[in-house]
Amino acid sequence: MFKHLPDAPLADKRPTTATAHGVTLHDDFAWLRADNWQEAMRDPAKLPTDIADYLRAENAYYDTAMADTTDLQATLIAEMRGRIKEDDTSVPRKNGAYAYLMRYSEGAEHPVYIRTARDGGDEVVLLDVNAEAAAHDYFDLGAVAVAPGHGILAWKADTTGSEFFTLRLRDTASGQDSATLIADVGSVAWVDDQTLLYVRVDDRHHPNKVFRHRIGSDPTEDVLVYEEKDPRYFVGVSRLRSGAYVQIATGMNDENEVWVIPTATPEAAPQLIEGRTEGLEYEIDHQGDNFVILTNADGAVDFKIVTAPVATPQRAHWADLVPYRAGRMVIGLAAYRDWLIWVERENALPRICYQGPAGEMQSIAFDEEAYALGADPSAEYDTNMFRFTYSSPTTPSQVFDFDLATGKRVLMKQTELPSGHDPADYTTRRIMAPSHDGALVPVTILHHATTELDGAAPCLLYGYGSYGASMPAGFSANRLSLVDRGFVYAIAHVRGGEEKGRAWYEDAKFGRKANTFHDFIGAAKALIADGYTGKGRIVAQGGSAGGLLVGAVVNMAPELWAGIIADVPFVDVLTTILDDTLPLTPGEWSQWGNPIESKTAFDDIRAYSPYDNVTAQDYPAMLVTAGVSDPRVTYWEPAKWVAKLRITKTDDNILLLKTNMTSGHFGKTGRFAALEDAARSYAFAIKAVGRGVR
Predict the structure, then answer these.
(1) Sign of torsion, CA 536 538 541 546?
(2) Is 4 a catalytic residue?
(3) DSSP of 464-505, one letter per residue?
(4) What are the DSSP E strand ranges found in 21-97?
(5) Which tens digits make up the pLDDT trace of 437-479?
(6) With CB atoms 3.0 to 4.6 Å apart as the test, which of 17, 279, 393, 507 could cross-link to 428 if both were Cys?
(7) Where is each Peptidase S9 prolyl oligopeptidase catalytic domain found (predicted)?
(8) 23 in a domain, yes or no?
């Protein structure tokens, strides 16, 4: 248990007010948002001294409070590292005359990208990420894309955590990068061996311009191909598997449009598939004379698959191929020359379906009660081979190659845990927890087979619940460090995700957002009622929009929790969504409502925004994290929240803010360095529940 720790940092109160819809909003800690925050995001050393000093004081307080967990964290890191096969190689991916793979060496934080002849042979190192990362405290490798003729590798990296990536071009024969450097690049797509499309990210971190680059030319001469004027829309580019088209996809969370350019005519103007329409979503692939389109058109709220002629791809010519069926969520597709493969989800479980020349729809079957699938289609268009990954909370990841023509499934790789793992030592269960309105919330549970389910076990309950993102019931080696100590690990598949179809997501938008929070509380109460854990024995964890979730539930039901872990939490919701100068805000209005224009949206958000609903009550132990370079949830949101909690709450329970002063939203990079973040969270959880951890 945490002992009371005196002398917690107290941020200065510098009162400010703002008015919206006739309501005066008071904020004592708005000063924690640096006026030069965009500059500081690129270079954290530019953070104003008073703000940096406060964040460092909080970090020092964290170090003191967690000092007695140093040995525990070291033990946890050693355990988690012991489950990683350090000298590991991916299954090669065949593409034309070559096969591509990644390899990790013992002790290496990052992979090496390698190429061989298609059926094996001498290895050629294309990119040693360890060598590129050596001079940087932070290194995030983004896109790695080889040209169609395999002669040039486009790769990009971020060295600050700000998610501003620099693009480089490497000759695959010599292994040397050209002098070409293109800054602030989003996605990248090869048109042909001499032509590259890339998206430029502006100073507000908005990917809004597509440029065409000719190999060997000066980037200042690159041609603007497309510019997105709507600040709600974000732009991406990609090459379709057939190789006949590149696409420019632009959209926000619940609305988009797609343009295509034939690769045979790189300088052709983009062709629109279907113009943006309120609420219309679609994504495309190409097959022969048709585009294959996944869409929610015509009331297909859980999506369907249609085809459209290449010559007339507009919505008026769309014809159903996989018709809409309520409750079956179609979540992705891949088109080969002779095959169409798609992934669908029903009752919170995914499945892989496919259709070939004969027209019969088939699926790949799995047996476990809860599991996760990952589709990894071939890079090649003319093939019968489809690759997928399978895991469950008890089963480490497996990579399969599936022959679509014969139905033969071949296990290509089984994740090894060098320290050992017996799935029989663990139990996975799926329960349905009633929410406040009777909705049944799926909860995936993992516990050790020897853990007694008498209500005494501690529990870590994880949730997210936004943007339609579904939480997979997959394997995590790190979680075993908690489960082996007697924890029950649970994932609440709350509304806001799409585990139970599109309606599950829609029922947690706008004024219905509180359903997400009630679902999570309902999951906790069900775990208590069923004896998996007890009241005050649960540590709730969520990150980003999941941080909003745990921030809301700790205001609503603080007595349920032994602790709260809020990773880079989106907690100052009202202020952020009122600020249309922030890069993500305009696109967020389709999720939360636009409180600038709508009094209803303003009232809805104000009612649950964690920062605005901090109240004079007892709170459990809390660990909050932030990153100075974070462009998604800016550092001042968690910092303000902690500052307000400190002067408002009525208990002596520990409240910690840990800010990474040199990185952003995703914490440390590298497969071993990232274990430090997991060990910190788990050590906090173990200490928060105190007794009963073996």
Answers:
(1) negative
(2) no
(3) ---TB--------TTTHHHHTTT-EEEEE--BTB-TT-HHHH
(4) 23-27, 88-89, 93-95
(5) 999 999 999 999 999 999 999 999 999 999 999 999 999 999 9
(6) 393
(7) 475-690
(8) yes
Task: Assess whether 193 and 251 both reside in one domain.
Answer: yes
CA distance linking residue 155 with residue 676, whole number of Å: 27
Question: What's the CA gap between 459 and 433, in Å, rounded?
Answer: 16
Provide the domain limits for residue 183.
Answer: 106-280
614 falls within a domain: no
Span 482-511, mean pLDDT? 96
**Tokens describing residue 511:** 């004024």
Chain centroid offset of residue 456 CA: 33
- 595 phi/psi in degrees, rounded to 5: -75, -10
As beta bridge partners, residue 346 has: 349
CA distance 517 to 426: 29
Domain boundary at 280, 314, 339, which? 280
Tell me how far apart the alpha carbons of residues 439 and 519 are, in angstroms, rounded to a whole number: 8
Instruction: Tell me how far apart the alpha carbons of residues 94 and 190 are, in angstroms, rounded to a whole number.
Output: 18
pLDDT value for 43: 87
Instruction: Please say whether the beta carbons of 667 and 677 come within 8 A.
Output: yes
* Residue where a domain terminates, one of 280, 302, 317: 280
Q: Do residues 61 and 122 both lie within one domain?
A: no
Q: Locate tokens 């390698």: which residue?
A: 114
Q: Per the structure, how many domains does the chain have?
A: 2
Q: Full-prediction pTM beyond 0.90?
A: yes
Q: Are residues 21 and 120 in the same domain?
A: no
Residues 129 and 68 in one domain: no
| Residue 165 to residue 158: CA distance in whole angstroms | 5
Three state DSSP letters for 165-177: EEEEEEECCCCCE
User: Active site includes 421?
Assistant: no
Q: Which residue has the tokens 């497309």?
A: 226
Residue 210 in contact with residue 258, Cβ under 8 Å?
no
Among candidate residues 162, 205, 665, 681, the one labeled active-site is 665
In a domain, 169, yes or no: yes
User: Does 677 have pLDDT greater than 90?
Assistant: yes
Pair 628, 480 in one domain: yes
Which one is catalytic: 162, 481, 544, 663? Answer: 544
More confident site: 367 or 81: 81
544 among known catalytic residues: yes
In a domain, 476, yes or no: yes
Kindly state whether residues 646 and 509 are assigned to the same domain. yes
Query: Long-range contact list for 349-354, CB < 8 A, 24+ apart?
Result: 349/473, 350/472, 352/386, 352/388, 352/402, 353/322, 354/386, 354/404
- Whichever domain contains 164, its CATH number is 2.130.10.120
Q: Which amino acid is at 299?
A: G
